[in-house]
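#lab-general

N.A. 3:47 PM
ok so I finally got the sequence cleaned up, no stray characters, all 454 residues accounted for. can someone with queue access submit it? mine expired

B.Y. 3:52 PM
send it over

N.A. 3:53 PM
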Amino acid sequence: MPSTTASPSARPIRVVVLGAGPGGVQTYNNLAARLTAAKLRAELVLVNDRDYFYSPISAPRALADATDATPAEALMFPLRALVDDAPAAQAAYITRRVLVARVQAVTSTRVSVVPARPGAVFLPLLWHPAAPSAESGFVDAWTGTDLGADLSFDYLVVALGSKYPFPGRPLPAATADETAAAYAAVRGKLAAAKDVLVIGAGIVGVEFAGEVKTEFPKANVTLVGPSLLAGSPAAFTTQVRKILANKGVTLIEHASADADALLAATGDAQFPLTRPQLSVPLVAAKGASAPPSVSSVTADLVLLATGVKPNSEPLAALPTTDRGYLKVTPTLQVEGHAHIFAAGDIAEGSAKLAYIAGEHAKLVAKNLARVAAAKAAGKNGKKPLREWKTPPPVAIAAVGRDAGAGFLPGVGTAFGIGASLAKKLKGKDGGVALPAAYAGTSLHQRVQAVASKA
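B.Y. 4:20 PM
back already:
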């Protein structure tokens, strides 16, 4: 019987993964395993505008932790480790590379990149371990200089994620030192603030409010949004509402604040806003059944926990929705482009959550490897691909280090199982250890390891 996979001597395929968020990093690792299992020689290239993976799930703790037991460096994981610490068993088939650059444009065959930091603080395109050479089998596969490059691919995974205000996402193209400094600056303002406003009453907003109130109990903390945890299971919302009330967090629903107007009024470039006794006007939220209970809130520090927008600017040549999300088939292939897949926040339809991005990564890696193996064996389309099925609702929130809420399939909020899980996963350390399984060791862990040997 003839082999259904490519031989080790066949021309390697190139798979490019755009974005090193939870979806991109997990897809990158899963692909290496899947392609190795299929005995397909492949060059995997991960492109990101920072040289580290950033874990947003721990941002509330890292921002508010008055003891500095959870430094910002604990949220950052060097991408070079994905190459340096790759399983040795994959080396016969997989060549891993990381390219630090900003994606400028994507077509059906090429990705155009430019330096992540052009201008006064110039960072050239940075390859690890090195740029592809003619010996790699891709004589015409990449052309460029430190000023920009075009990278061709056989298969592409778009996992560019979404924009979100700092610290829910790192500052664009920020170095690790710059991100740590930004955290330190905001934390200093937070420690001195008497009144803190969190705009956005989803899970991120709830966790920010809970962490701030836990670490700074004397501060007046207000959480504002159209409704608490909109779209979440009612029992979970009730659980969180009670925790917030017990902690003394003021919740104002049916309300919204104009973030752009606030930036224009203060002259600031981005959130958080740190202005003493800033008056923040509130308006009735769209579709609200009642007006907000107050017309304004006064705050010394304003955190924004709303406004997710896809990073779709480079995707003009691909089909997107009117909101900028990639249109995908049930197999997470981009419509009209069977060799291009999407994972994480950038894909239309799915909830914008880290665990959903991780589930996307599993499906995309499996389907892409199956497509590549079939093509290599000359059996295109003969083996069906797996389709995405939305998982049962799961909701986990740590509301400070001492309280948590959770909703799990089959049990909901019963018996406090979900709440216990929330405290176990995120209560002690804010969840900084959760990405270790796929992102390796954080910058903080690496510094500690070096210090312990000194």
